[in-house]
Amino acid sequence: MLPSMQAFAVSLTYPPTLSLWLFALGAVALLLRRRRAGAALLAFSLAWSLLWSIPRASDGLRGLLERRYPVVAEGELPKVDAIVVLGGGSRYAWLERAQVRPEDLENSRLAAGARAWLAGRAPTIILSGGSEGGESEARMMATAIARLGVPASALLLEERSHDTRENASFTAALADRRGMRRIALITSSLHMPRANLLFRDAGFTVIPVPVPERAARDTWRQRWLPSRSALWRSGRAWKEFAGLLVAHLRK
């Protein structure tokens, strides 16, 4: 029952899902002759998704989280016991390129981890990400990061986690056995506030290494024309706000 409730709550962070439920409530209110409340719910349901489908509004929302930890040059990081890279998707389009260098991949967590390792910031990279069946995300990350010059001997794989809290707890169990407490934590700028909080709660001393997820906004159309991409990016931001709230409430 609880996992189902959690899944439902997460689904509401995606603007069209919340809009759909509010629209349904508005329709019910109209049927019950609560015209003012029904009209307000219908109007709000449409305005909610429309607002967050506007790229400029989506970027502003995301910026509230992304600006908390500025992007840093990996070569300027202090030395740490380990570099921890959190999974964020199992598709790496750059693997299809004939040649690829870590310096070419500004928005890649794996490339950020490779750059930090190649700069001598830590002897070990921990790749964290489980699976829902089949090959773990950590193992797929290990295959991909090899293309960036990181040997298997430098890797530790955490393959049991399914969310950020488990990323932190299972990585801590793995690191404790090797005396690793000071880490460079690599994840997206959007995800970093929540990840940093949970890894600190797990006992780590964390050096945040956020990876930007930039979107081109060169023209008026790209900034103001509603799009599905902006809706998706807004949904990710609302999910992070909700997750951060839950993480604080659990402290």
Write the layout of secondary structure elements.
Layout: H1 2-11, H2 15-31, H3 35-52, H4 55-66, E1 82-86, H5 109-118, E2 125-128, H6 137-146, E3 155-158, H7 164-176, E4 182-188, H8 192-201, E5 205-211, H9 220-224, H10 228-249
Parallel strand pairs: 1-2, 1-4, 2-3, 4-5
Helix pairs in contact: 2-3, 4-10, 7-8, 8-10
Properties at a glance:
alpha/beta, 251 residues, five-stranded parallel sheet, 2 domains, globular, single chain, 5 strands, 10 helices, Rossmann fold
Describe the structure.
The chain is 51% helix and 11% strand. The protein has 251 residues and is α/β, with parallel strands linked by helices. The protein folds into two domains: 2-66 and 224-249, no CATH class; 74-211, Rossmann fold (3-Layer(aba) Sandwich). A five-stranded parallel β-sheet has the order 3-2-1-4-5, sandwiched between helices. Helix 6 links the parallel strand 2 and strand 3 (155-158). Helix 4 runs parallel beside helix 10 and helix 7 packs across helix 8. The protein is globular, with a radius of gyration of 21 Å. The two termini are 23 Å apart.
Task: Give a short synopsis of this structure.
This protein has helices at residues 2-11, 15-31, 35-52, 55-66, 109-118, 137-146, 164-176, 192-201, 220-224, 228-249; strands at 82-86, 125-128, 155-158, 182-188, 205-211.
Instruction: Choose one word for the global shape.
Output: globular
Low-confidence runs (pLDDT<50, min 5 residues)?
none
Enumerate the strands of the largest sheet in spatial order, edge to edge or round the barrel.
Answer: 3-2-1-4-5
- How big a fraction of the residues is strand? 5-15%
Level-2 CATH architecture of the largest domain: 3-Layer(aba) Sandwich
CATH class of the largest domain: Alpha Beta
Q: What is the count of β-strands? A: 5
Give the helix level as a range of percent.
40-55%
Number of helices: 10
**Main sheet summary:** 5 strands, parallel
SSE string, helix = H, strand = E? Answer: HHHHEHEHEHEHEHH
CATH superfamily of the largest domain, called what? Answer: HUPs
Structural class: alpha/beta
